[in-house]
Specification:
Chain A is mainly β. In chain A, 11% of the residues lie in helices and 29% in strands. The longest helix of chain A has 8 residues. Chain B has 996 residues and is α+β, with helices and mostly antiparallel strands. Chain B has 5 domains: 167 residues, Roll (Ubiquitin-like (UB roll)), CATH 3.10.20; 194 residues, 3-Layer(bba) Sandwich (FAD/NAD(P)-binding domain); 83 residues, FAD/NAD(P)-binding domain, CATH 3.50.50.60; 192 residues, Gyrase A, domain 2 (2-Layer Sandwich); 96 residues, Aminomethyltransferase beta-barrel domains (Elongation Factor Tu (Ef-tu), domain 3, Beta Barrel), CATH 2.40.30.110. Classes of the chains: A mainly beta (113), B alpha+beta (996), C alpha+beta (188), D alpha/beta (417). The site of zinc ion has 7 residues of chain A, from loops.
Chain lengths: 113, 996, 188, 417
């Protein structure tokens, strides 16, 4: 069970209070009515599904009710930071966004090195 | 305990040594094992009590049904799995005899044997074992094809399995507790206790956990360790008492840390009352602790391994530390003439203790040439024969070991030595389970032949034996520094420990047919592992799954390292390259009931009831589950079945009126100057044109354009809307709205509040609806002119502030009276009394469904399914053509959503009016086509309509609206029903009644 | 929406009929109260505070009380304001009087409250609530929306060993039953 | 290849089983292949087998980054059934079920396909409507699926609690008798052995780290941790890692990778005769040949590549299991684990050509693709060999996310496993 820092409550709280809300920083196209089918499919269906550093949204649904953003490593499930909704995507100090594979699960699950 | 009544006749067991151990005979208890009665002392485990009475044979193995005894004195026990019962409902299979404490009256039985433990028919498997090597089933049982399912599999199934599952519902209670701490310490041996002293001194909140009834860990058996000048075990108890007195320390004994999950979260299972003679009725049996710890100190110790040699599994063969525990803690000798077979110094100490207690030691057989000097010297001093460079290569004895066969390594000279017990040690495996579960990475320590914690993934540290720290003074230093504070602990151990081996021992080497067991419970032998490698299973994960090594209920606590070493030898690869299998929770098996804790019965899932629930129940309502809600389904009168009740309700509503509880409908109050603009974006309809005091039916789609929810929205004021949603949709609709409001349209000045439960909603529908409610409504003209269809107003009803809607889901004149929930029952009662006197009825969801279907109104989720657009559902009119944006505007225009031939909602009339279609029935154009048939769609709603005097149905049919007038077919199992495609309105097509 | 002086309709409270256990730990339904869900932007907090006669808290997990009214911080623009007394204390009206932009919605009947009082109160709540309820982490006056077993609650610490649990009415049977189990277990 | 039979077993019994050879060979990789399959799960190994067997393409390598079957093939609850709703799904899963029925014989490897019946519990009117929709569609399509009353359900599965007082009483069930379970590891091993026998190279511990492309954008081979290996065609069948591998060729697929958990109890004597699933209370359960109760839990809510998940997912599932089967409350959980499933927006799989010539993808089987293994592998081989989909898999292509022609089994309230 994850422990998640809510940037509004300014506190670490149990995952039980939160709802995951998908990849972050996917803006709804301004003139959405006019985009092409391809652009719509991209906007609505395609997600990065990163292995490694990912930007995602959570909602503190059973807390302050706010949506916010988080940077998390999807291999270790470690949170690198969380920040309020509406703030721009921020680099995580010391982690390159292009570095896809931080570590593989085989290495994190008790295997010998 | 009740034992004292057994008086002086108490037989505490022939193997119970006077003056040995820490149990006192003051309190005893009785239990039965396979029907025979025994006496135990307070503090005995089932294992120690049985051994006290000389009982070694306690079970049969899984595959070969080999006789098995007690191998260990702890949770790693693979053999001694018993069925323990308090009464017929409180029966528990697969209980480790070495963990279960005896309680008075326990009925204990052996498992996996028939007809009896001593004579088990299943043991022919042992003779047939050459035919059952690892993975044999993959190679055979394939012909004839059906025989696997009909013959072979049932036989295999009956032979497999261990205990018998309980047959009755478990009456016991279980509890849950969430807890937080600064430091959680797993394990209260010397290392854990020392770390706790140090951590507690800093003022930190400390939780110290140990799965044994008492703290002390290895100090239970280690007589040669003194701490602060005291016997180690005594020091441990005193330390625990000191810690327990501190306000910032909580000690949980009989509590297993079974899982170390993400972000400092650990699962603990506390055995609260399984050891009690007569637990209180309300005492939980077990308690789940879900702990979030800032820091974790792992002090889980090490587990002794057995030696892998031919016939190493006979009853009477056990771990040296176990024999020592039985002697030093329980005062029980495991035999009178004990052999020792070891690769590690620690077993010598077991021999010393036994010898001093008067047990004769046949010999210490040490496969090493050079054991530790200190232990050798002591053995000599005690007059114990030590055979270094020798191995035990076989044993005899059917139900209990009789002799061991000893050979000089590499030499064929053998001698047989009579023994009645053989204690073994291949060394110690650090318990790194929790460390690994926390995703820490291990490293292989070549010198000591063990995996040790290396890189930590969480805020955690390992101390003591689980960290490979052998020297007592180093251990203490390490534990103090892990605790982060200070403590003064002086521990000394008389003998240094060295040695250890992993893999098959002498005589079980390559090329042998002998059964040298690696995994006792699953009957995995050294040769099985070699066979797996020969068959191309080169990954340790394949070897595990092919042989099932380590997959039994002990999860390889004893066997994994041996299996790994044998595989590595076969593969000619260094051990770290072969790797380990993954450690997974739980550390030891955890009762489902404990994990479920409170979530059973009424606490399994909240049953939501409306304010009028009890009144409806009193009127005889049958209820149905809709999401979490209990909704009144229909109100049968005496002697009525469902159909006749529903028919009566349907008729009465249209002839007179009906009263319906609509409280479960979701309600969201949308408030703020931009409320209309917000709703414009969230619904397909336009809302800025809606005047205060009016309502409108709205459809919500998501970006994909499919119908997501619907409901009537009333505008109370310029800046205040009362939005209703479907019963099941309420939470997700609010979440969806919040999502858009907070992330896409944060500039809008509007707020959302759930008011579902603020209002009790009483719908009154039918020609007499107005007349019924009229006298209760204050301050509002509800005449047709002043308050037409689709109006809303705030007023008072029976002196209570109310929101009154003129709306209808039945096609009749209708009102929905919203009053603050606590007033619901009183208002309901008053309205119902008046309605009843006028000939109206109460009706439930079933009648509501029929009436709305007569009018062709849809139910989202029944007539639509997440693939239906508003247009498909015949609601194209509700999609604004003028708006330049709303959620779904683009999705709706995708090629497949606008193509011809989409499924559209239509009506169906069966050729025979009395035929009611089955909801979910499929529709075809040609019923005589071969299978697989081309299906055009399916029936979404179908009812007997009392008001139409015939059956009616709605269906989603490909190109449906263009087929109106056509005959289609509904092929059922026994016959085919012809249907005519119609529009969806079956009753009052002109729609006049609603304005009545 | 203040309620009228003497409605013809009588109230039926959620949890009517349940009684706390006679133990060191009591779990009892609270008296009815007026409640609003109040939403406002930060620039309007001062005016609303003045109108309500208490300082709307702006720090997470805090509450403020005055004159029988308690305001619970639930989110950066959200408060649950509770006024004692069944008849209501004019919370809605006070908000309107503030003259500033806000949303006030009457939820007096949506919620009901359960009081947990006595030794082990925190442990009882921890039977279903994952929060750290030590006095350090959750002092007297602390409040938050959170989860309790399978339902959502708003939790307020009213004393070292007393809490108020606000819960939606249809979840109150569940919440009460789980609290009762928790209370029972807290005594072991 | 040595034939497996009871006679062979008896012969070997007399000589300590010394004569068995490796089930599959582990050759050094060639410099290039006609086809490279990425992913040594059941789907990938099976595709290689059918390429060799049915299309005569034997210059094939299966590259597996870990050990064969170590992905979801080795960690699933092995439920097999074909009673899906949409034609695209029925085509695929029924094709697969028919292959299951003869798989042990075809592979000469006992995969222990056990048609013990899969029963889905209906708890309310909505379930009933949905199940009957399935049953009727299945019947007209030639697929067995029948409605049971609560009493019939209890007769089929005696441990079931059908009392009216249950929190969610059962109002019936849908039963597919031909549904059941199979031995997951044997599926991977059996395909590997049979494929290897036909010349396919099975190459483990080899992770594909890049996809190389030629001047016209076509694939030319893969980069691996053991160097470059050339290929004319590449079939990606990497389950939870599909989007990671496809990204190497610049192709984005609509997938979310989520941990899905499962657990087993301690072994028990036979008590549970079939497979039971309940969508309403979220639980599914069967008993393995070895005696453990095998229980499938839910997915964690977030994307993740760690094969672990939260304890709350497990407890939630056990709540439901103990509510349906109150007698199991004293049974103990022996092990829990997770796998990474790749889920599409409509919860149906993708088997498709891609914008990259020579690159084919088979993914999105999510939480329910074990049952599809033979069928999917068989049709994926067809796709790779012919360059276009078989008619039974024609609906599973990628372009549906553009056109909106989804195959939304989830929306139709089917159960996903
Ligand atoms: C807990 C759980 C329960 C389930 N229960 C059921 C069920 O009851 N019934 C059912 O039908 N389905 C079930 N499923 C789903 C089912 O397991 C999968 O859909 C199916 O096994 C997928 O098979 P596969 O061969 O495609 O994938 P996998 O077996 O996962 O094989 C993919 C392989 O690709 C390899 N790979 C990935 N990336 C690379 C790379 N870069 N280079 C080389 N190799 C790579 C992986 O290591 C892996 O071995 C369940 C899944 C889980 C996790
Ligand atoms: N170095 C070695 O190889 C070795 C081997 C055996 C014993 N010893 C001796 O062991 C002692 C070392 O002390 P130690 O404290 O490190 O180990 P320990 O074995 O004395 O204590 C470990 C404790 O952890 C508990 N435990 C283990 N897993 C648990 C879990 N998951 N949940 C709850 N409790 C759990 C055990 O019940 C035990 O009481 C010394 O006395 C030393 O002489 C050392
Ligand atoms: C159908 C099935 C049955 C299983 N039975 C057992 C079992 O009896 N004992 C066991 O230890 N593990 C069992 N497992 C779990 C495996 O040990 C292992 O946890 C799983 O394959 C995932 O691999 P991992 O834990 O190594 O990551 C079973 C797994 C499956 C899919
Ligand atoms: Zn928050």
């Amino acid at each position: 069970m994850l422990l998640i820092h809510c940037p509004y409550c300014e506190e670490d709280r149990s995952e039980l209070e939160f709802r995951w809300a998908g990849e972050a920083h996917i803006a709804r196209p301004d003139a959405i009515a006019d985009i092409t089918d391809e652009e719509f499919a991209e906007y609505f269906f395609l997600r990065n599904n990163e292995k490694g550093l990912t930007y995602e949204r959570w909602r503190h649904i059973h807390g302050c009710g706010r949506f916010f953003n988080a940077a998390r490593d999807t291999v270790s499930d470690r949170f690198l930071m969380t920040y309020k909704a509406g703030l721009p995507k921020r680099p995580v100090p010391g982690v390159s966004a292009t570095e896809k594979t931080v570590e593989t699960y085989e290495q994190t699950e008790g295997d010998a090195r | 305990m009740s034992g004292s009544s057994h008086g002086s006749a108490k037989n505490l067991g022939a193997f119970r040594l006077k003056g040995a151990g820490r149990l006192t005979p003051a309190r005893t208890s009785r239990f039965t094992f396979d029907g025979k009665s025994y006496t135990a002392m307070e503090g005995d485990t089932v294992a120690s009590a049985l051994l006290a009475h000389g009982v070694h044979l306690v079970g049969r193995s899984f595959k070969y049904h080999r006789p098995r005894g007690i191998l260990s004195a702890g949770p790693e026990e693979p053999n001694a799995l018993l069925d323990v019962a308090r009464d017929s409902a409180r029966r528990q299979p697969n209980v480790r005899a070495t963990v279960q404490e005896v309680f008075d009256g326990a009925k204990i039985s052996s498992q996996n044997r028939w007809p009896s433990l001593a004579f088990d028919v299943g043991s022919v498997n042992n003779l047939l074992s050459p035919f059952f090597p690892a993975g044999f089933y993959y190679k055979t049982f394939k012909w004839p094809r059906e025989a696997w399912e009909k013959v072979y599999e049932p036989i295999i199934r009956r032979a497999a399995g261990l205990g018998v599952a309980p047959k009755e519902e478990d009456p016991d209670r279980y509890a849950n507790r969430f807890a937080h701490c600064d430091v959680l310490i797993a394990g209260a041996g010397l290392a854990g206790l020392t770390a706790a002293l140090s951590a507690a001194a800093t003022g930190a909140e400390v939780i110290l956990v140990d799965e044994q009834p008492q703290v002390g860990g290895a100090l239970h058996f280690e007589t040669s360790t003194t701490v602060d000048g005291k016997n180690g075990f005594d020091w441990a108890q005193e330390t625990a008492a000191k810690l327990a007195a501190m306000p910032n320390v909580r000690i949980l004994t009989r509590t297993t840390v079974f899982g170390y999950y993400n972000h400092g979260f650990l699962g603990l299972a506390e055995r609260v009352s399984d050891h009690l003679d007569r637990p209180g009725r309300e005492t939980p049996r077990e308690r789940l602790w879900q702990v979030r710890a800032k820091r974790v100190i792992l002090a889980t110790g090490a587990i002794e391994r057995h030696m892998v040699f031919a016939n190493n599994d006979r009853p009477g063969i056990m771990l040296a530390s176990a024999a020592r525990t039985f002697l030093n803690h329980y005062g029980v000798a495991v035999g009178r003439n004990v052999g020792v077979y070891t690769a590690h110094d620690s077993a010598y100490e077991a021999a010393f203790d036994l010898k001093r207690a008067g047990v004769s030691i046949a010999a210490i057989v040490d496969c090493r040439e050079q054991p530790g000097e200190a232990v050798l010297a002591e053995a000599r001093a005690l007059g114990i024969t030590v055979l270094t460079g020798h191995s035990v290569i076989d044993t005899t004895g059917r139900l209990r070991i009789k002799s061991m066969t000893v050979a000089r390594n590499g030499n064929m000279d053998i001698r047989k030595m009579a023994v009645d017990a053989l204690i073994v040690s291949a060394g110690w495996t650090p318990s790194v389970h929790l460390f690994s579960q926390s995703r820490g990475k291990l490293r292989w320590d070549e010198a000591s032949q063990r995996f040790l914690p290396d890189i930590y993934a969480q805020d955690c540290v390992s101390v003591g034996a689980c960290n490979g720290t052998d020297e007592t003074d180093l251990l203490v230093d390490e534990a103090i520094s892990a605790g982060g504070g200070a403590a003064s602990v002086n521990a000394e151990r008389r003998f240094g420990w060295s040695g250890g081996m992993i893999g098959a021992a002498e005589g079980a080497g390559p090329d042998t047919r002998v059964k040298a067991f690696v995994d006792f419970q699953h009957d995995v032998t050294a040769k099985d592992i070699r066979l797996a490698v020969r068959e191309g299973m080169h990954s340790i994960e394949h070897i595990k799954r092919f042989t099932t090594n380590g997959m039994a209920s002990d999860q390889g606590k004893l066997s994994n390292m041996h299996g790994l070493a044998i595989a590595a030898e076969m593969l000619d690869r260094p051990i770290p390259q072969v790797g380990l299998t993954t450690f997974r929770a739980p550390y030891t098996p955890v009762t489902y009931g404990t994990l479920v804790a409170h979530s059973r019965g009424e606490l399994f899932d909240p049953a939501r009831k409306t304010p009028m629930h009890d009144l409806e129940a009193a009127e005889g309502a049958e209820f149905e589950d809709v999401g979490n809600w209990k909704r009144a389904w229909y109100f049968p009168k005496r002697g009525e079945d469902m159909a006749s009740a529903v028919n009566r309700e349907c008729r009465t509503v249209r002839d007179v009126a009906g009263v319906f509880d609509a409280s479960t409908l979701g309600k969201i109050e949308v408030v703020g100057p931009d409320a209309a603009q917000f709703l414009n974006l969230l619904y397909t309809n336009a809302w800025d044109t809606l005047k205060p005091g009016r309502c409108r039916y709205g459809i919500m789609t998501r970006e994909d354009g499919f119908v997501y929810d619907d409901g009537v929205v009333g505008r109370l004021a310029e800046d205040r809307f009362h939005v209703t949603t479907t019963t099941g949709g309420a939470p997700r609709v609010l979440h969806h709205m919040e999502d858009y409001l907070q992330t896409e349209f944060p500039h809008l000045k509007v707020w959302l509040t759930s008011t579902t439960e603020q209002w009790a909603v009483i719908a009154v529908q039918g020609p007499k609806a107005r007349e019924i409610i009229q006298p209760f409504v204050e301050g509002l003209d509800i005449s047709n002119e002043a308050f037409p269809h689709m109006s809303v107003a705030e007023c008072a009803v029976m002196g209570v502030p109310a929101r009154l809607f003129r709306m209808s889901f039945t096609g009749e004149l209708g009102f929905e009276v919203n009053v603050p929930a606590d007033y619901g029952p009183a208002v309901w009662t008053a309205i119902w009394e008046r309605a009843k006197s006028m000939g109206a009825c109460l009706y439930g969801t079933e009648t509501m469904h029929v009436l709305r279907a007569e009018k062709g109104y849809i139910i989202v989720g029944q007539d639509t399914d997440g693939t239906v657009t508003p247009d498909d559902a015949g609601l194209g009119w509700a999609v604004s053509k003028k708006k330049t944006d709303f959620v779904g505007i683009r999705g709706l225009k995708r090629p497949d959503l606008v193509r011809d031939g989409r499924k559209q909602l239509v009506g169906l009339l069966t050729n025979r009016p009395s035929d009611v279609l089955e909801e979910g029935a499929q529709i075809v154009a040609d019923p005589n086509q071969p299978k697989p048939m081309t299906m055009l769609g399916h029936v979404t709603s179908a009812y007997w309509s009392e008001n139409c005097g015939r059956s009616i149905a709605m269906a989603l049919v490909a190109g449906g609206r263009s087929r109106i007038g056509q005959t289609l077919y509904v092929p059922m199992k026994d016959r085919t029903i012809a249907v005519e495609v119609t529009d969806t309105v079956f009753f009052d097509k002109e729609g006049g009644r609603i304005h009545g | 929406m203040a309620e009228m002086s003497s409605p013809a309709a009588a109230r039926t409270l959620a949890l009517s009929g349940v009684r706390g256990r006679a133990a060191s730990l009591a779990v009892t339904p609270a008296a009815p109260a007026e409640r609003i869900s109040l939403r406002a932007r930060s620039e309007d907090v001062a005016a609303l505070s003045a109108a309500l006669g208490l300082e709307l808290p702006t720090r997470p997990k805090t509450s403020a009380a005055n004159n029988g009214r308690t305001a619970h911080w639930l989110g950066p623009d959200e408060w649950l304001v509770i006024g004692e007394g069944e008849k209501g204390s004019g919370l809605m009206a006070a908000c309107v009087a503030s003259g500033v932009l806000h949303s006030a919605v009457d939820v007096s009947h949506r919620n009901t409250a359960i009081l947990v009082e006595g030794a082990g109160a925190a442990a009882a709540i921890n039977a279903g609530c994952p929060l750290d309820l030590s006095l350090k982490a959750f002092p007297v006056g602390a409040c938050t929306r959170t989860i309790f077993g399978k339902v959502e609650i708003v939790l307020l610490r009213t004393g070292e060993e007393s809490f108020r649990v606000e819960v939606w009415r249809s979840f109150s049977d569940y919440a009460y039953a789980l609290l009762a189990e928790g209370a029972l277990d807290a005594t072991f | 290849m040595r034939k497996y039979s009871v006679f062979a077993l008896a012969r070997e019994a007399l000589r300590a089983h010394k004569g068995w050879d490796a089930q599959w060979s582990s050759p050094e990789p060639r410099s290039s292949y006609d086809v490279i399959i990425v992913g040594g799960g059941g789907h990938g190994l099976g595709a290689a087998y059918y390429l060799a067997k049915e299309h005569g393409i034997t210059n094939v390598a299966v590259l597996e980054k870990g050990w064969l079957g170590g992905g979801n093939t080795g960690r699933n609850t092995t439920i097999i059934r074909s009673n899906y709703l949409y034609e695209e799904s029925m085509d695929m899963y029924e094709h697969s079920l028919k292959l299951w029925e003869g798989l042990s014989q075809d592979l000469n490897y006992n995969v222990m396909y056990s048609p013990r019946g899969v029963m889905m519990l209906s708890h309310n009117t909505h379930d009933m409507q949905s199940f009957k929709r399935h049953i009727n569609a299945n019947r007209l399509y030639g697929i067995d699926n029948e409605w049971l009353t609560p009493e019939q359900a209890k007769a089929y599965c005696p441990p079931l609690d059908i009392s009216k007082t249950a929190r969610y009483p059962i109002n019936g069930a849908a039963l597919q008798k031909r549904g059941g379970t199979a031995r997951h590891d044997a599926v991977a091993w059996g395909y590997a052995r049979a494929a290897s026998d036909r010349g396919v190279h099975i190459i483990q511990n080899t992770e594909v780290t890049g996809i190389r492309r030629g001047p016209d954008g076509e694939v030319t081979g893969v980069e691996t941790n053991r160097g470059f290996i050339g290929a004319k065609k590449i079939g990606v069948s990497a389950a939870g890692h599909s989007s990671v591998v496809m990204e190497m060729a610049g192709v984005r697929v609509p997938l979310a990778s989520n941990p899905l958990q499962a657990l087993v109890s301690e072994p028990l004597k036979p008590i549970f005769p079939c497979v039971v699933m309940s969508n309403t209370v979220h639980a599914y359960i069967s008993q393995s040949d070895k005696g453990e109760l095998v229980i499938g839990a839910g997915t964690d809510q977030y994307n993740s590549y760690s094969q672990t998940g939260g304890l709350q997912i497990i407890t939630h599932t056990l709540d439901a299991i103990c509510e349906l089967f109150p007698m199991f409350r004293r049974v103990k959980m022996m092990r829990q684990w997770g796998g990474i499933t790749d889920n599409t927006p409509d919860r149906s799989a993708i088997q498709s050509v891609t914008p990259v010539p020579g690159l084919f993808v088979n993914c999105g089987w999510g939480t329910g693709g074990f049952k599809a293994t033979p069928g999917s592998a068989n049709l994926f081989a067809h796709l790779i060999a012919k360059g276009e989909p078989h008619k039974l898999a024609a609906g599973l292509t990628l372009d549906r996310f553009r056109t909106g022609r989804l195959i939304d089994e989830a929306a139709a309230a089917a159960v996903a496993h």
